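Fill in residues.
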């Protein structure tokens, strides 16, 4: 998945992301799967590199949930290299 995000491969992401997934950005902005895929297709976020920092999985007999925390080098709405470490409050 990280490779597909880094390449901007919306088709590959569409095949693995659940329809009801949501993405919460470090800024607090939340996107639905469709909003995220549309942004990937139009190039709004440009990912220059990404790696998984941690993955948490929970499941039962009917559902599964995965939470991915990642470290990304990305341009959002044209901004890149924002000062500071957003992982530390």
């Amino acid at each position: 998945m990280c490779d597909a995000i880094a390449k901007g491969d919306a088709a590959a992401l569409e095949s693995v992301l659940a329809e009801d997934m949501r993405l919460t950005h470090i800024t607090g902005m939340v996107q639905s799967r469709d909003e995220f895929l549309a942004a990937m297709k139009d190039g709004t976020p440009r990912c220059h590199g990404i790696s998984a920092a941690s993955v948490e999985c929970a499941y039962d007999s009917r559902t599964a949930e995965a939470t991915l925390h990642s470290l990304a080098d990305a341009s959002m709405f044209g901004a890149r290299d924002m000062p500071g470490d957003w992982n530390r409050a």
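The helical segments are 2-7, 10-16, 33-42.
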